[in-house]
C-alpha cells in the first residue's frame, strides 16, 4: 500500500432489520460513507444481521460462522464505521455481538506484537427516537479502543428524536444541520487520522 492508494472504509450496520428493509441505522452509515467519499475514501457496507455471526470471542467459531469473512473485509479497511440503533437506551444486540467478536483481536498480533487493528480508525454512528447516544458511544469507544482501533477527535455522529415519539431518522424530510455537520467533521477527522496512521504506524510492542 502506498500514500496514493485510496483509503477504504467498512460500515458494519448493526440494525435489527434484515435484508433491504428501510433502516435509520443504514441511512446514517451511508451518510458517513458519503462524507468519507469526499475525502477519497472508498466505502462498503455489511448489514451484520444478514450474516450468521456466531456468539463467542474467537476469530472463527466454526459451524458455518460468517464472522471470518466479515473480519477479512475489516482487516482490509482503514476505517471502521460502527453504526447502531438505540433500543431501551442501549446499543443493539447485533452491535453487542460485534463487540464480543472484536475481543479476539486483542490476541491476534503481527510480528511487531501489535494487534492487526492497530492503525485502523473507527467512527461511531448512533440513531434512535430516545436518549442514549452518549451512553452508547462511550461504550463503543471503550470497546473499539481496547480492541486496537483509534477514534478521532469528535469521531461520533448521532441523532436522537423525541422520547416515546414514532418518528425515526429515516422518516425526516431532511437531516438536521446539527447531525449533518457532526457527520461531516467525524468523516473529515477519520480520513485525516487514517492517512496519518498509514504513513506513521504505532511503535511495536515487542
UniProtKB/TrEMBL annotation:
<protein>
    <submittedName>
        <fullName>Multimeric flavodoxin WrbA</fullName>
    </submittedName>
</protein>
<feature type="domain" description="NADPH-dependent FMN reductase-like">
    <location>
        <begin position="10"/>
        <end position="153"/>
    </location>
</feature>
<dbReference type="Pfam" id="PF03358">
    <property type="entry name" value="FMN_red"/>
</dbReference>
<dbReference type="GO" id="GO:0016491">
    <property type="term" value="F:oxidoreductase activity"/>
</dbReference>
<dbReference type="InterPro" id="IPR005025">
    <property type="entry name" value="FMN_Rdtase-like_dom"/>
</dbReference>
<dbReference type="InterPro" id="IPR029039">
    <property type="entry name" value="Flavoprotein-like_sf"/>
</dbReference>
Amino acid at each position: 500500500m502506498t500514500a496514493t492508494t485510496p483509503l477504504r472504509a467498512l460500515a458494519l450496520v448493526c440494525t435489527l432489520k434484515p435484508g433491504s428493509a428501510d433502516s435509520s441505522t443504514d441511512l446514517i452509515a451511508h451518510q458517513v460513507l458519503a462524507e468519507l467519499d469526499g475525502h477519497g475514501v472508498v466505502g462498503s457496507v455489511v448489514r451484520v444481521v444478514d450474516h450468521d455471526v456466531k456468539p463467542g470471542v474467537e476469530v472463527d467459531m466454526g459451524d458455518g460462522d460468517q464472522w471470518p469473512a466479515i473480519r477479512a473485509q475489516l482487516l482490509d479497511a482503514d476505517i471502521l464505521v460502527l453504526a447502531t440503533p438505540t433500543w431501551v437506551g442501549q446499543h443493539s444486540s447485533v452491535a453487542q455481538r460485534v463487540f464480543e467478536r472484536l475481543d479476539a483481536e486483542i490476541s491476534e498480533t503481527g510480528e511487531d506484537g501489535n494487534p492487526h487493528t492497530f492503525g485502523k480508525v473507527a467512527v461511531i454512528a448512533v440513531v434512535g427516537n430516545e436518549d442514549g447516544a452518549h451512553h452508547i458511544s462511550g461504550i463503543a469507544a471503550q470497546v473499539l479502543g481496547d480492541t486496537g482501533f483509534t477514534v478521532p477527535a469528535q469521531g461520533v455522529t448521532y441523532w436522537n428524536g423525541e422520547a416515546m415519539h414514532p418518528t425515526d431518522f429515516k422518516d425526516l424530510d431532511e437531516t438536521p444541520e446539527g447531525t449533518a455537520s457532526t457527520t461531516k467533521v467525524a468523516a473529515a477527522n477519520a480520513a485525516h487520522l487514517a492517512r496519518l496512521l498509514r504513513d506513521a504506524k504505532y511503535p511495536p510492542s515487542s
